[in-house]
Each structure stands twice: as structure tokens, then as C-alpha cells.
Design brief:
Mean pLDDT of chain B: 93
Number of domains of chain B: 2
Oligomer: heterotrimer
Strand content of chain C: 5-15%
Radius of gyration of chain B: 23 Å
Mean pLDDT of chain C: 92
Helix content of chain B: 25-40%
Number of strands of chain C: 19
Largest interface: A-C, 50 and 61 residues
Structural class of chain B: alpha+beta
Low-confidence stretches of chain B: none
Strand order of the largest sheet of chain B: 2-1-5-3-4
Strand order of the largest sheet of chain C: 12-11-15-13-14
Number of helices of chain B: 7
Distance between the termini of chain C: 77 Å
Chains: A alpha+beta, B alpha+beta, C alpha/beta
Strand content of chain B: 15-25%
Largest sheet of chain C: 5 strands, mixed
Number of strands of chain B: 11
């Protein structure tokens, strides 16, 4: 957890820094472990319950451990009418996970995102921060092979 | 003090004060489940809606939450307007769908003609109406031991990670302020249990009854600089002992 | 970079940079998030490599510039040669060698990479002659695609901070007067007159005031703010500095939603560069005005686009809106006077101060002045980002610029304003786009997202989609929104499963009316809009779902089954595209759909080249 202290050092130690700190922790560990939130609470002097309230409110944070590869399917309107639901179905068929779930071998977590702003390339799928546009269900297998 | 007109009646009210509080002071009955004098208003339950207008608004009006709206000179308030009553009924209708077995909610709904919800009842009903009073009083008292967790329909009042809240001192303010008795606690002479956390009480040095929890005593001492010996005797014994001392001094 | 200590020093620097950066032969490669999703970064890198390795062979040096979004996302990756304006689209890695050999070395055009106008099938060489671009007029997006967003030098050379130079010579009241003349209205959705907000904040007596740029852009389908922040961050900063000077603020925040990481990068670099040059910080350009900007990242919540929720998020709290009986201009961030403006609004400010409010007001309609950015997406041929004068009709946008519906199918509706907006049907295609007209039609301007829908879009499903979206995004504070959305959703789930009842329509209307009155913030108040607008214009579809238990668009999978007719020629296109392998058949023989496996997604129907697949009502088991 020493990385957590390093992250906190980058920002002023006040409540206004909370969301940025949590984002960096989430990016580093792939989720927000309980211990990390306890450390943040002590260091920036914000009650743990309030931090937990913030962490559970925003979609950017995961309070559950996630898989090695994060699959994000955009479910914005343009992506929806161009086939995002079929992408989600295909991932369910291939990896047996629904949005919010992690595969049993802990390799993949599927999440939905409410619009990443690449609507002209709908439907959009993001694997580990790499964007794929005009995705078809038949592309899923190949894309997932790029995972770690 | 300024003058406002409520349902045709002229009323004097303090400018800038929350409208609901002024209305209640003057005997107007307006439902408001998330409002309480001990905390700042929140505007979450939406039952306290009223219609307001002013003479220079030329017939334009708006519907606002009276718990938050600041009193202004010349305000004209309608508490029984048709649009307002319809909206209030629907809100109660929605509440009954969520809490079909909660006496406080059912009582209030009945006053507006709702016995059963016309919507789909929750498969797992709950007494909690998410009024936020418990978290607000806990924040105000300084502990912030519980909070509103999650977002939207999955929201709930909970301690962090659904475990024993580390900052809770067992003061029971949340349970007392809860309008629907959703927050349960257990209490006996020596112990108190709430949110899954057990608290030992400080016992009166004289009669042995429980006064406050040890955590409460520590918290008040630290935060407000109260001498911890204040909690050595219960109020009854304090009164008895001091009045005896007073008697002796008089002799 | 040396700190500039006066307006004259900025002007001198600009003259020098214009010599260095302008009038060069360049190659633009669009590297906005959209084109990056299509591998454009790799294209840029490969091109750069080939130019570097063969430097000696190239007759005239070409500088490769990675720019922000050019807007023509449908045709990306885009490679544009300037000043010739040769416009290449859908460029792949394998095309790079030919581009180098023909265009870089010999100034010849690779015709197969040019844009082909779909109606006349003509190739168009020049950027500005392509209908998509020809009909646009760009103010907020004036420099996107022309500048390297990571270079302040390039931005200044292309005109950045000319507006600021002019503003710092004016008085704050004069600036607000100019904004008033321009008629600029908030470009984030509400359309509130910008000058009024600024004036209210200016009048407040407080030594601490804030300017916040709302870069939350939560509307799905809208990405204009992303493109402006990624492609021309200096236009946003310029607008903020001018605003801060007008109202008397020393601190500002740019709130960027978490889903826009590239925007955070460009803005960070831009702010650092501004500080180095003395355009941000103490005594800007030697004047007595000081102002600095911090970036605040969102956590992934649509509700944080609402100004009071955004302010709470900046403070590190849960994004719960509050009742706005006391305006943010009076008590906003940390209870201080705060002005919150949208990215596009701020981007317009610099141009308005430079060219004058009257110039801006010469575009647009009576009550909606200036230009507006739109993201045109969905079932339209040319999807992308455009900017047009207000008053352009929907027909012009969708057909002249958008090129019409994909595969020339029938237009059904265009959804505007995001989840707070509504659907506009074919009958209203000649509607001039402006704030009032869209609201009258039951929709709203919103962020500028325009999602085009064709006959294969089910309007009941569209309403249900928006309800699902809002249900996930509602903060949960107030009863009518949280519970109302849940109950509306429950009714819709029944309708699309064939369990709808006649009284459902009245229930929906009654609940919608209550939500509009009783909800705490605009998320809840406008949540019924998609529901009510689809009900208004497409009631027959609802009735078909409820009475006939059929989905006329063939989308609701519980109500339709797909069938291949006997006239099938066995091409196999459907068999190959079926995601569940539910179609069997040999090449050149009639294909068949296996009913038990079919999920009624309609992919086969959409791909069949001779239209021999149909859908019909599914016989429900409970009759």
C-alpha cells in the first residue's frame, strides 16, 4: 500500500482532492481496496463513511476486485442503436460474464460506459484503454485475444 | 419581519427563513418527511411542495419545495393548489410502492386517499425512505459514521463496507431521528448495539445504571473539552448527591 | 519559454511564430479519440517514420501534424495535405507507401483515397468542396484540425489569444456588453443568456469568485466538447481568462469527465504552457489581473453535468444536486459567486471579443444567435462533428451534410438533446434548429447531439433505453425521480415483453407529469421527455406493442420472429453474420433460421442483399 501514500503526496491534503486520489488508486490497483480507503481517510482527514459514499457513487471506481483485462462496452445512444447490446450478448457467450462481472479465471471484467464520445464510430468497445470502433460481434474473439 | 399571503391569509414571517418552518409555526399542515428542526433542510422527499407566485410575476407561478425556499416579502403561497396536491399524491403513491408495510408512510398516504399503490410493489419492501436524516444528523454531530451509499435505485444507508462503522459512538441520534423506525438498535443496562457494533456503557459510580457509551464519553471529552468525570454519575444520582450537599451547606 | 510581460510582447511573439509556423507545407493526421479508435495514431507514426527516413529524397519538406478532430469521423482515419487541401479518407497502413510515393514526392493525388460523393459518385479532391465541410461555418471549432493541440506556439500562430489581447484592453463592463450584443446563450443545453450570468456574478461583492468550465458532456451521442478540449484547448482557456476578467475571479476549474483522458492530457499541457508564458498566473501579460486554472476530473456520473452537482463534485463530494433557489452566481462553489459555462460557450467567447458581438449576432435566428456544434450520429451516412449557424433546418443537416440515411432506408426520427430531449419525426424535418423551436417540438437543444434513426429503430425501445440510462444515472436523492424512473421502467419492461395493458399509457402520462413537477433537478424533471415525445409522435407503435403484441420495427425480440422466404438465393450473407449461428443452409440453397436458437437481433434482415428475410409477430406462449 505504499503506492497509496505516494499518490496522496501528489495532491493537496484536503477533501477537494478526493476524487482525483481515488482515480489514481483505482488506476494503479485496478480497484479500490478497503485498506487504501482507510489510509486516504487518515491522510486527508475525511471520515471513512464519506469516502465510501463517494467511492460507491461514481462509476469510475470499483469496490470489487477486477480482472486483469477490463472490457468496456459503450452503451451510449448511438452505440445502442448500432448494436452495443449484441456485443454484450456475444461477450456473455464467449466469456460467460454479464456487465459488472469478472470471469472465473479473473482474466476479464465486463463493464458498460455511458458514452465515451466516439459516437461516430459506434459501436465502441474499449479493451484496457485501447479504443475499437465499428465493432461487430464477430470481432469480439480477436479483440479479446489482445488481452493480457 | 415581512408579510406573506398563505392560502389567502396574511402572515408575518422572518425574511430569509425557510418557508416550511414559517408555515408550520403558523399552523399550516404540510407533510415533510425529510425535514427536521435539528438539521438543515435537504429537499429530498418532495412532499412539502407548494405553489408560489408574486404580484409582479403577472400570473406566472412555480412549484417549489417549501423546506428550502427562503421567505421573501410579498410572497403568495398556495398549499392546496390542484397541481401541487396531484404531485404530492403521486409521490406518496411511489413511496407506498417502496414501503407498503411502513406505518408512518401508510398513515400519511391514507390522509391523501391512498390505501394501496397503483404501481408495482417492491418485491423486497423496505422501511427506509432515503430521507437522509440519519446521515445528516451524524454529519452534523461530527462523527459521519454512516453515509448514503451507492446511487439511484440501489442507494441505501450503510456503514462503510457494510461492516462495523469505525467512527460510530453509539449515540443513537440516527435511530431517534428516523421517521420510519428503520434503524434498529438493541439496548440493555450495560450494553448497546447498533449497525452491528457493540458498545459498553459507562456505569454510574453510585447506582450502577448505564449512562452513555464509553465511546460517546471519549468523543465528547475530546471534541468539546468536557471533563470526563462528568460521566461518572448518572443524572438522577447527580441531582440527589448535589441536592444533599446543598442541604448540608445550608445548615 | 520566456514569460511575456506585456500585451505588446504577446503580439511580437505572435508575429515571430506566424513566420515560423504558418505557410508551411503540412500533413494533418486527425488524432482525436474517434479516429484513434480507428488506428489513426499508428498511421501518423508510420507517416512520420517514412518522412524522417527519407528526408533527403523529399523535394519540399512536409511537416506532419497530429491534430484534433476534423469532424468527418465516418471517413476516418483522415490524412490532409495543406495548403493544397488534398483530403484522403479511410486511410489504412498499407496506403502509406503510395501516399508517400505519389503525393509527398510528386504532388500527385491518390484518387482511390479521395472522398466520393454518394449521390453523384464523384470524387472530390479538396477539403472545402466536400459537402460535409462546405456547408459548415466554424466559430467554436475554428482551429480544431488546424493546430497541434499540444503546442501553444502553433496555437498562437493560428490566432489563439487575439481575443484575450483585445479583452484586456477593455473594461469588464464593456466585455459583458459585447457578450450581450452577441446574444450568446449557454451551449450546454439550457441556453441561458451568458451575459446575464456574468453580470450577476460581476455585481456580487466578494474577493473570491470562481469560473468553472463544464466539460462533463454526459449526453450520449454528443462529443463536441471532447473535440474542443482535445483539439483546441487554448480556445477554452482564452474564454475562461476573459470571463474571469469580466466577473473578477482569480481561480478557475475545468471539470473534465473521467471518460475523456485525452482531453485531460491536452488541457494539462496547455495550462502548463500558459503558465510558462505568463498567460495564466499572477499579473497576466503584465496587467493587474491574475487568474489560474485547475483541472478537476469527474468520477463517471451523468448527473454531474448539472451545475449544482458538478460543484459538489469539484469539492470532492457525492454529486447530488441541490435546489437552486439561490443561484450559483450568488453562492456557488464553497458558497462563493460562481459562473459555470459550457466548453463551447467559452470557446465562442474569444472569437466574439475579437470580432465583436454584432458579428456573432449576424448569424442565427432571432432568439438563437451565432453558430452551434452538432454531433451527427446514428443511421446517417456521414457521421461526425459539424458547426452551423442556428436556423439551419434538420433536413439540411441530415441530408445535405449528413448525406441521408445509411443504405437509403427510410428516415424515422432524429433524437436531440440527449436523455433530456426528445425525438423529432419526419413531419418536422424542415424545422429550423434553434432553442425555442426544438423545445416547442417537445425536444430540446441539449448539448447538440443528433441521433438519426431509421425504420429499424423501435421508438418504444428508444424510450426504454433512455429510462434505463437515467435509472443508472439518477443520484437517488429525491423520491419522484428515483422511484418514478423505476416504476416507468417496470411498465416499459412489461410492454416490450408483450405484457402491456391499455391503461399503461395513462399511467405513464400521469407519472411523467408528476415527475416534471416534483423532481428536485432537471435530470428528473426532463426524464419524461423521451417518453412523452415518443408517445406524442409514435403512439401507433406503442399501441402495436400493447394491443397487437407486435413490434413494427422488428426490434423487441420477445415480440417478433425472423423468417427467410423461399426466394432466398443461398448467398450465405445471413449465415455468416448471425452471432448465434442460428442459420443453416448450403451455398446457393435456401437458408433456414432455427427458431429455438434465434435471438431476433435482426442482423440477418439488415444484411440480406435481396431483402428476402421478413419478421412477423411471435405467437406468445400465453396466447
Amino acid at each position: 500500500m505504499e503506492l497509496v501514500y505516494k499518490i496522496i503526496e501528489k495532491y493537496p491534503k484536503e477533501e477537494a482532492s478526493l476524487i482525483q486520489i481515488l482515480q489514481d488508486i483505482n488506476r494503479t490497483y485496478n480497484w479500490l481496496p478497503k485498506e487504501s480507503l482507510e489510509i486516504v481517510s487518515k491522510e486527508i482527514n475525511v471520515p471513512l463513511a464519506r469516502i465510501y459514499g463517494v467511492a460507491s457513487f461514481y462509476k469510475a471506481f470499483s469496490l470489487k476486485e477486477r480482472g486483469k483485462n477490463i472490457i468496456k462496452v459503450c452503451t451510449g445512444t448511438a452505440c445502442h442503436i448500432k448494436g452495443a447490446p449484441q456485443l454484450i450478448d456475444e461477450i456473455k457467450r464467449k466469456k460467460n460474464i454479464k456487465p459488472g462481472e469478472t470471469s472465473k479465471d479473473k482474466k476479464f471484467t465486463l463493464e458498460t460506459v455511458n458514452c465515451v464520445g466516439a459516437c461516430a464510430m459506434a459501436p465502441v468497445l474499449i479493451l484496457n484503454e485501447k479504443y475499437h470502433g465499428f465493432t461487430k460481434p464477430s470481432d469480439i474473439e480477436k479483440i479479446l485475444e489482445e488481452g493480457k | 419581519m415581512v408579510e406573506i399571503i398563505v392560502d389567502g391569509k396574511k402572515i408575518k414571517a422572518r425574511e430569509g427563513n425557510y418557508l416550511l418552518r414559517e408555515l408550520k409555526k403558523n399552523g399550516f399542515k404540510i407533510p415533510a418527511l425529510c425535514d427536521h428542526l435539528a438539521v438543515e433542510p435537504w429537499g429530498g422527499c418532495r412532499l412539502c411542495l407548494v405553489k408560489i407566485t408574486k404580484e409582479d410575476w403577472k400570473g406566472w407561478s412555480k412549484i417549489v419545495a417549501s423546506c428550502l425556499y427562503p421567505v421573501e416579502d410579498g410572497l403568495i403561497v398556495l398549499t392546496k393548489d390542484k397541481e401541487v396536491e396531484e404531485a404530492r399524491k403521486e409521490v406518496l403513491n411511489l413511496m407506498v410502492a417502496r414501503s407498503p408495510q411502513t406505518p408512518k408512510v401508510l398513515e400519511l398516504a391514507k390522509e391523501y386517499g391512498i390505501e394501496k399503490t397503483s404501481y408495482e410493489e417492491y418485491k423486497e419492501p423496505t422501511d427506509c425512505i432515503l430521507c437522509g436524516l440519519c446521515t445528516r444528523i451524524c454529519d452534523q454531530l461530527g462523527m459521519s459514521a454512516i453515509s448514503l451509499v451507492g446511487r439511484g435505485i440501489g442507494r441505501e444507508v450503510a456503514p462503510p463496507f457494510n461492516l462495523e462503522p469505525p467512527d460510530c459512538i453509539g449515540c443513537l441520534s440516527c435511530a431517534y431521528i428516523c421517521p420510519t423506525n428503520f434503524i434498529k438498535f438493541e439496548e440493555n443496562e450495560k450494553k448497546r448495539k447498533i449497525w452491528g457494533k457493540e458498545f459498553e456503557k459507562l456505569l454510574c459510580k453510585n447506582c450502577g445504571c448505564g449512562i452513555v457509551t464509553k465511546a460517546e464519553a471519549e468523543y465528547f471529552s475530546k471534541k468539546q473539552g468536557i471533563d470526563p468525570t462528568v460521566f461518572e454519575l448518572c443524572d438522577k444520582c447527580k441531582r440527589e448527591i448535589y441536592s444533599k450537599k446543598f442541604e448540608e451547606l445550608q445548615k | 519559454m520566456k514569460k511575456l510581460k506585456s500585451l505588446k510582447e504577446l503580439s511580437d511573439l505572435r508575429k515571430k511564430l506566424e513566420k515560423d509556423y504558418n505557410n508551411k507545407k503540412e500533413i494533418f493526421v486527425c488524432c482525436g479519440t474517434g479516429c484513434r479508435a480507428n488506428n489513426s495514431l499508428k498511421i501518423a507514426e508510420e507517416l512520420e517514420k517514412i518522412l524522417k527516413e527519407n528526408k533527403k529524397e523529399i523535394p519540399v519538406i512536409r511537416y506532419l501534424k497530429k491534430t484534433g478532430c476534423h469532424g468527418f469521423c465516418e471517413r476516418g482515419p483522415l490524412v490532409i495535405f495543406m495548403p493544397e487541401e488534398i483530403f484522403y479518407c479511410k486511410v489504412k497502413e498499407k496506403d502509406i507507401q503510395e501516399i508517400y510515393e505519389k503525393t509527398v514526392l510528386k504532388n500527385e493525388v491518390v484518387s482511390r483515397l479521395l472522398y466520393k460523393e454518394p449521390r453523384e459518385k464523384k470524387e472530390i479532391e479538396k477539403y472545402k468542396e466536400i459537402p460535409f465541410y462546405k456547408n459548415q461555418y466554424r466559430i467554436a471549432m475554428r482551429n480544431i484540425g488546424k493546430v497541434d493541440p499540444f503546442s501553444i506556439e502553433d496555437s498562437i500562430a493560428k490566432g489563439a489569444y487575439l481575443g484575450l489581447e483585445a479583452a484586456l484592453k477593455m473594461k469588464p463592463e464593456e466585455i459583458i456588453e459585447e457578450i450581450k450584443k452577441s446574444g450568446l446563450r449557454g451551449r450546454g443545453g439550457a441556453g441561458f443568456l451568458t451575459w446575464r450570468k456574468w453580470e450577476a456574478a460581476r455585481k456580487e461583492k466578494s474577493d473570491v469568485k470562481y469560473i468553472i468550465c463544464n466539460g462533463d458532456e454526459g449526453d450520449p451521442g454528443a462529443f463536441k466538447d471532447r473535440s474542443i478540449m482535445e483539439g483546441d484547448p487554448h480556445s477554452v482557456i482564452e474564454g475562461m481568462i476573459i470571463a474571469s476578467y469580466a466577473i473578477g475571479a482569480k481561480e478557475g476549474y475545468i471539470y473534465v469527465r473521467d471518460e475523456y483522458p485525452l482531453a485531460v492530457e491536452t488541457l494539462k499541457k496547455a495550462i502548463e504552457d500558459c503558465r510558462s508564458l505568463g498567460i495564466l498566473g499572477k499579473n497576466i501579460l503584465g496587467t493587474s489581473h491574475s487568474f489560474d486554472i485547475k483541472i478537476s476530473r469527474g468520477g463517471g456520473a451523468f448527473v454531474c453535468g448539472e451545475s449544482s452537482a458538478l460543484i459538489r463534485s469539484v469539492m470532492g463530494k457525492v454529486g447530488e444536486p441541490r435546489a437552486k433557489y439561490i443561484h450559483a452566481t450568488e453562492k456557488g462553489l464553497y458558497d462563493k459567486p460562481t459562473v459555470l459555462n459550457n466548453v463551447e460557450t467559452l470557446s465562442d467567447v474569444g472569437a466574439i471579443i475579437l470580432k465583436g458581438g454584432n458579428w456573432f449576432a449576424s448569424f442565427g435566428t432571432e432568439k438563437s444567435k451565432g453558430t452551434k456544434c452538432f454531433s451527427l450520429v446514428g443511421k446517417v451516412k456521414n457521421t461526425g462533428l459539424i458547426e452551423l449557424p442556428m436556423g439551419t433546418t434538420l433536413r439540411q443537416i441530415i441530408y445535405d451534410i449528413g448525406g441521408g440515411i445509411v443504405k437509403d432506408k427510410k428516415f424515422k426520427a432524429v433524437q436531440t438533446g440527449g436523455p433530456s430531449g426528445g425525438c423529432v419525426p419526419e413531419a418536422l424535418l424542415d424545422l429550423p434548429v434553434d432553442y425555442e423551436k426544438l423545445t416547442e417540438a417537445g425536444s430540446m437543444m441539449g448539448s447538440g447531439g443528433m441521433i438519426v434513426m431509421d425504420e429499424r429503430t423501435c421508438m418504444v425501445d428508444v424510450a426504454r433505453y433512455f429510462l434505463k440510462f437515467l435509472l443508472e444515472e439518477s443520484c437517488g436523492k429525491c423520491t419522484p425521480c428515483r422511484e418514478g424512473l423505476r416504476q416507468l421502467m417496470a411498465i416499459y419492461e412489461k410492454i416490450v415483453k408483450g405484457e402491456g395493458k391499455e391503461e399503461d399509457l395513462d399511467k405513464i402520462k400521469k407519472l411523467s407529469s408528476a415527475m416534471k413537477i416534483a423532481s428536485l433537478c432537471d435530470l428528473g424533471r426532463s426524464a419524461p421527455n423521451p417518453v412523452l415525445s415518443t408517445l406524442k409522435y409514435f403512439e401507433e407503435e406503442y399501441i402495436a406493442h400493447i394491443k397487437d403484441k407486435f413490434c413494427p420495427a422488428g426490434v423487441c425480440s420477445d415480440l417478433v420472429i425472423y423468417e427467410i422466404l423461399q426466394t432466398c438465393n443461398g448467398c450465405g450473407a445471413c449465415r455468416r453474420i448471425c452471432p448465434v449461428s442460428a442459420i443453416v443452409g448450403k451455398q446457393k440453397e435456401i437458408h433456414k433460421i432455427i427458431e429455438e436458437k434465434c435471438i431476433s437481433c435482426g442482423s440477418c434482415y439488415d444484411v440480406c442483399p435481396i431483402n428476402v428475410i421478413i419478421y412477423k409477430k411471435k405467437e406468445l406462449k400465453n396466447g
